[in-house]
Write a structure and sequence with these properties.
This protein is of the alpha+beta class. It has 13 helices and seven strands. It has helices spanning 5-29, 35-55, 61-86, 93-113, 117-145, 151-171, 178-235, 255-260, 272-275, 283-294, 341-358, 378-384, 397-407; strands at residues 238-243, 249-252, 299-307, 313-324, 330-339, 365-367, 373-376. The strands form two sheets. It has a five-stranded antiparallel β-sheet with strand order 2-1-5-4-3, with helices on both faces. The chain has a two-stranded antiparallel ribbon with strand order 6-7.
Length: 418
Amino acid sequence: MNFSPTTAILTATLASAVLTTVLVRLAVLLPDQPAMRWWRAAFAVNTLRFIAAIFLPGIDGQATVFAVESLNAINAILLFAGTMRFVDRPVRAGWVAAAAAVTVGWAAYTTFVLPNFLLQTAPLYLIAGLAMLATGWAFIREGRRDPNLGFKAVGVIFLLWGLHKFDYPLLRPVEWFAPYGFMISQAFMLFIATGLIIAVLRRQAKLASDLGARMEASQQELRNSEARFRDFAEAAGDWLWETNPIQTLVYASGRVADILGVPAEDLIGKPFADGLGARSADPDRWEQVSTAMREKRAFQDVPLHCLTTPGEKRVIRLNGKPVYDQDGGFLGYRGTGTGITAEWRASASAKVLRDSIENLATGLSVFNADRRLVVMNRIGAELLALPQDMTVPGTLFDDMIRHMSHRGSLGTGHEEEH
């Protein structure tokens, strides 16, 4: 097999540089993925390792060994740190720096002080292999939570790469195996980089999908809330209204048509004073509302007589309160209007009836089925000469008879005879 170490290392360097560039770009595009920062650092270190393997041998052989072996272990440590962040586990930069310092220190000692290949590589590749195994296991566990994102496949590749790290101190000195070992390592690196990129993109796509689902659920809930509000507004006896800061009516529920006899669309977009004030037949009462709104005060239970387009009189009870935003800015008014036309008409009719009864030229008393007084006019009270407290509604007929009997107004018979 024709194997050119320089060509192989140069190819690996270019591949590692490309992968590093991709990861750097992804880290910029996905700032909410902290794992990307660790992984891009890991592949940048890997690229430096290959550059050192190309340029340092002609300068200093020992420096080459030191750089290549220490950077290999640091690469594995950074990959492990990034994976911990990817699976939402805490990572302390101080611990990572301490682990890197230990590997650098050991590589320096076994390169410049006590040169020994096996003494140097066994601990360093043990650290690198264990880091890869832990990384692989973390991905496999994450794959159990999200089985459709391919995390388990990435975890298996890391496990295999970690096992391959363990054989380096024993197989690297075997001359015929060295090219194969190098190519296996580069294949693992390529698969790992591709797997990490795919894992991040799939995770990001899932997050985007989940966010979209949550937004759709929120929008649906908002639509449901608006529908419920409209239903309540339509079913309620009141009509609801809202103005903007310049007192233009921006909302009026459909009930306004039943209460005022005016479609909501004829009021919305017009000044509140034009929409309602112009229809008011009570200038004094409307001035009370208008003054409160100018002064941004609440008002309650203000009765207003309004004229509809055909000239029919409607009566409403108006309520309103000013609304402010969280910074204290005035947003307008929100309020309700209750139709009390029927109550007003009934009250007016009752007053007419009371006045008519009161002005009769003869005495009149009306009792209900329970023999309790409903109404007695002035002449009736005078004719019966009853005390005032016995002419009020609710007085028992029997109590009146008993009173008049005791007083002797009914003659000399017994009370029971009357």
